[in-house]
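Lecture 7 notes: from sequence to structure.

We start with a single chain of 229 residues. Read the sequence below before looking at the structure.
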Amino acid sequence: MELGATATLSINGSDTTAAQRQLDSFIERWKSDKVDAIFMSGEQVSSKQFVEKIKKQMPGVMLIADTAQVNAYGQDYVVDHIKPDPYEGIISADGETGTQHDQGDNWKLCASIYQKAFAKPAPVWDTVIPGPDNKTIDTYGLLEDACTLTQLFKALAAKAGPYLNADTWIHAADTIGTVPDMDSRYASLTKGKYDADDTFRLVEFDSSIGAKGDWKEITPVEDVGNGVK
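Now the structure, written as tokens:
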């Protein structure tokens, strides 16, 4: 396997004019070098304007993203009935798929809190809620984030004890080990490790799954927490 030219795009806020010109130049070089896979680092370079251009000029190239949030871009094309979806088949690393997550005990707890508060069932992963300006409202994602953060805070505060301050909070994060994460199957914190999510698998975006597309698993789910308990 040979490494092709590395592209660095200069993105200054909302002005992507320079970045677009830079990408045009690199695409021509990649085509001449017969590049067949591109790894995209960061959410900005994985956004629609850049992915659309790459897939239009290099339709057979494999795209690999370092953030699993790019599936939201692919879902926008599904909801808007736009084909082909430039995110079709894009590869990333994620944990459980939406369907698997909704069937787990963590999500059931979050959904029960939502139903009690709003007197209606919680939306599942592929629920499409229309919003203003042809946008969709991600109640599912908001609920998941809120539930994850509050449950994590509860666990750390309990570990810190009755006198919660900066020192007891740091000690709790350094020593707690396994933590609840409503967004993931495996999670832990320990000294020097402050990214809780330990759930890993390779996935690819499939626009045919559910009402708006989802990640499709390529490899089994693994706990990559290095034995933290």
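The mean pLDDT is 88. Keep this in mind for problem set 3.
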